[in-house]
Design a protein that fits this description.
This protein is of the alpha/beta class and about 240 residues long. The chain contains seven helices and six strands. The chain is globular, with a radius of gyration of 18 Å. Bound molecules: 3-methylbut-3-enyl trihydrogen diphosphate (2 copies) and magnesium ion.
């Protein structure tokens, strides 16, 4: 089943994939087993997104704050990304997925950096869906990085517009997210897409990320379709 019954599908969806640790703990498993299950789930949700007609899916996979976790967990998360690129890249490419990265490459192991770069390069002409992976991503770091580059480019204060500033963000030419989903039951942004989410609709579910399946996704999209986006204007009259 596709997304034909949804009357309005968001173009860009961002997901804060939270709850892997609790998913594992409830099963008496180590946290990393939760991350593994969470990583497996990406495939399923990506496929569902493409079927629903979503054009850009930004997944929050590792925040600049997540470096503060125990070394073993951080290393495990890095390893999972590497394994995942190695294992899934050919299939993603074949399915027409364009991979992008939002975040700082510096700080990531050079070998992993290289894999990320080549995945982006290999898939850059694909156009079925964009999978934008927010990895070593922080909204504040992103804003500072943008300001630094603006200054380096010698942009004058009177030249600066919201549109120009947006282009200096990691997300560059991508449109702002229409919908932000957070799994795992918390109600916060945790430094995700601070600038870009200014007018995104927000949806939170208690479901842990490894359990967030196509039906859960559909519920979020149905809720989105019922929302009225006003962008500061007065409500549109009932017709
Ligand atoms: C989200 O799951 C994945 C990352 C932040 C990398 P968590 O690891 O935060 O899971 P909980 O919140 O502890 O359940
Ligand atoms: C947000 O989850 C980051 C990612 C999903 C990558 P966290 O689990 O790190 O967020 P907090 O610590 O609960 O705010
Ligand atoms: Mg968490």
């Amino acid at each position: 089943m596709g997304g034909s019954e949804l009357k309005r599908v968001p173009y860009h969806v961002g997901i804060i994939m939270d709850g892997n640790g609790r998913w594992a703990r409830e099963r008496g498993l180590p946290r990393l087993a939760g991350h593994r299950a969470g990583t497996e789930n990406i495939r399923r949700v990506l496929e569902a997104a493409a079927e629903f007609g979503v054009k850009v899916l930004t997944l929050y996979a590792f925040s600049t704050e997540n470096w503060a976790r125990p070394l073993e967990e951080v290393q495990g998360l890095m390893r999972l990304l590497r394994e995942n690129i190695d294992r899934q890249l050919p299939e993603l490419h074949e399915k027409g997925v364009q991979i992008r990265h939002s975040g700082r490459l510096t700080g990531i192991d050079p070998e992993l950096q290289e894999r990320i770069r080549s995945a982006v390069e290999l898939t850059k002409d694909n156009d079925r869906i964009i999978l934008n992976v927010a990895f070593n991503y922080g909204g504040r770091a992103e804003i500072l990085d943008a300001v630094r580059r603006l200054m380096e480019d010698g942009v004058r204060p009177d030249e600066l517009t919201e549109e120009l500033f947006s282009r200096y963000l990691y997300t560059g030419d991508l449109p702002d997210p229409d919908l932000i989903i957070r799994t795992g039951g918390e109600y916060r942004l945790s430094n995700f897409l601070l600038w870009q989410a200014a007018y995104a609709e927000y949806y939170a579910t208690p479901t842990y990320w490894p359990d967030f399946d196509k039906e859960e996704f559909r519920k979020a999209l149905e809720e989105y379709a019922r929302r009225e986006r006003r962008f500061g204007r007065v409500p549109t009259p009932e017709s």
